[in-house]
Amino acid sequence: MKKKLLIFVIPLCIFLVIGVVFIILLFTNNIYTNVKSFLSPNKEYKIVIKSNGTRWSFGEENIKIYAYKNSLKGFFVKKIYETTISNDGKILNDTNFKIDWESNIAYLTLSGEEQIDEVLEIKFNDIIIINKKNLN
User: Fold this and answer.
1) Are 100 and 106 in contact (CB under 8 A)?
2) Fewest 10 Å CB contacts: which of 40, 63, 117, 134?
């Protein structure tokens, strides 16, 4: 009787442990935290960069860029742009981001150790438009 119980309990425990690990990995991979935020010189517009952390294999890091007006209206009218940064597994910091403001347009440069710079043009009007610029 004990043998039959062990044959059932041991695989069940292994299955439960694998399931719990899978659920933890699934949910923690989708948690984004603030990395950097920028406020326009006139304090009217805001850009927030969020990341879900570096990969264990030194791969790309997923980031989301939130662009919105720095007001109550901005809560409802915002644009989210998703991209990646290849930074050799290092934590993102101030050196990975550069911003230039021209009136209601922001030029955000994303840099990584293992990629060419990516420049985004963010236009703040009634709707917010984010375009990737070519560096030629």
Assistant:
1) yes
2) 134
